[in-house]
Design goal:
alpha/beta, globular, 454 residues, seven-stranded mixed beta sheet, 2 domains, Rossmann fold, 35% helix, five-stranded mixed beta sheet, Nucleotidyltransferase, domain 5
Length: 454
């Protein structure tokens, strides 16, 4: 017979023996981790982002683990949900865990159990479950574990997350379905995709749920489209899963990629159509070409330091293809200028056209003093429209080829044209997303004669 120590020290075993949940059929069953839950548990790092399809069971897994920790060790946990209904649902889940958590007749002691706070006196543990409704939620304590549920739907998520983490270094899991190409969760995910982040992104598309399938009738067959065949081959999907996908896409239409994502970029739907349209065919340029002294190169540069990125893109105008991209942030201006100098020299002291507004003007002057051949470009609505029109023509009609970068691909998809209340049309990233790579690419695409620009 297993001892209490053996069970409580093994998270999966603890869940099976002590925790009960309501399954999708509303039956009361023991919590046995599904495939996605097992995978995440084996790969979590302590700073984890979970981007997921609907109803894969991550809130259940996280709440079960947080309950186990509070009743077996001294912990101060906090869970923040995006709305009151979800907060109450998570609270009921925690209460159910406690109700059935018994080793024989022994049950962990609870002292307080009100609408948001529960205490476990044996280990002096506390568990808070609340709604992320204002920027002060979660402030004022030092937490060991932090679960953010549906973070993409939080108001002012950046400040709420920072407030809950300010007292120390908790074990943090922020999980959500996508909610458009905007917001703090979106920014964290896109940064993690590029590898420039302390967060680890875990992406779980819809096929992690084995229930998402429609079984074929006896003798029934289906003919795959090219898209379906590519998806099935890439992820080992069978006909029943493809049939489910067809029916769900028919039901949700354009919202399908957001509710049941298939890759971590296109699931962040934009609210408007991309300015460039479908240019998926252009990402065929070689990743690491060599410099050719007989070729003509041009570079575009967009400056930023903290939340946005400094981006330098180099185009080989002789072969009409992108050859390099530098994308950096959170460094000193001096360090970033040295990186720009390095890339410029790598491509034969390539001439650089740089966005010269605001912080750009000072950096342009400093780079010129360092003998980088650089020219400032003044960005206005009119000048931006001109270079973007040139870039669009180069991609659609001119045969320009780009290197396949997740950041560049996503920013191109997320770059939209919107009419402001004043009647002026604005070209920029949808929501509060990034467009640094698009700006740098458009500047690099300019052929020359830069002294007359800006």
């Amino acid at each position: 017979m297993l001892t209490p120590a053996q069970v409580t020290s093994d998270p999966a075993l603890f869940a099976r023996h002590f925790l009960k949940i309501r399954d999708k059929q509303k039956e009361l069953v023991r919590l046995r981790w599904n495939r996605a839950q097992q995978h995440f548990h084996a790969n979590r790092t302590g700073r984890d982002l979970v981007l997921k399809a609907r109803q894969l069971g991550f809130s259940t897994y996280i709440q079960g683990e947080m309950y186990r920790r509070t009743v077996t060790a001294t912990r101060t946990t906090i869970t923040l949900a995006h709305d009151t209904d979800t907060t109450q649902k998570l609270r009921r889940m925690a209460d159910r865990f406690h109700e059935y958590c018994k080793f024989g007749d022994i049950q962990p002691a609870r002292k307080y159990a009100n609408a948001s706070l529960t205490t476990y006196p044996e280990f002096d543990s506390t568990a808070t479950i609340a709604t992320a409704g204002n920027v002060n939620t979660g402030r004022g304590d030092t937490y060991t574990d932090f679960h953010g549920s549906e973070v993409a739907f939080w108001p002012d998520a950046e400040r709420i997350v920072a407030g809950a983490m300010q007292g120390g270094s908790p074990d943090v899991i922020l999980e959500s379905t996508p909610n458009g190409a905007q917001g703090h969760f979106y920014n964290l995910c896109t940064e993690a995709l590029t590898g420039d982040s302390v967060w680890t992104l875990h992406f779980y598309p819809w096929w992690w749920d084995d229930a998402y399938r429609i079984e074929l009738e006896d003798g029934q067959t289906i003919r795959y489209s090219k898209e379906e065949r590519k998806l099935a081959d890439a992820h080992d999907l069978d006909a029943a899963q493809i049939l489910w996908r067809r029916e769900k896409k028919r039901e949700l239409k354009d919202l399908f990629p957001q509710e049941y994502p298939e890759d971590p970029l296109t699931c962040f739907l934009t609210s408007g159509k991309s300015y460039f349209g479908d240019v998926s065919h252009v990402y065929t340029a070689a990743k690491a070409p060599r410099y050719n002294a007989e070729h003509r190169y041009r570079a575009g540069l967009d400056f930023a330091q903290t939340t946005d990125y400094t981006v330098l893109i180099v185009i080989d105008h002789t072969e009409n293809r992108m050859v390099d991209m530098l994308r950096i942030n959170r460094q000193s201006w001096g360090a970033m200028r040295r990186e720009i100098q390095r890339v410029s020299k790598k491509w034969g002291n390539v001439p650089v056209l740089a966005e010269g507004n605001s912080i750009g003007s000072v950096n342009v002057e400093e780079l010129a003093r360092a003998n980088v051949p650089i020219t400032a470009f003044t960005t206005t609505n009119a000048s931006k429209a001109d270079i973007m029109a040139d870039l669009k023509d180069a991609l659609i009609e001119g045969g320009l080829k780009l290197q396949d970068s997740p950041a560049l691909r996503h920013e191109m998809n997320n770059f939209v044209s919107k009419q402001l209340p004043s009647g002026v049309w604005r070209l920029a990233a949808d929501g509060d997303g990034h467009d640094d790579t698009v700006i740098a690419l458009a500047l690099a695409n300019q052929p020359g004669g830069w002294l007359s620009i800006g």
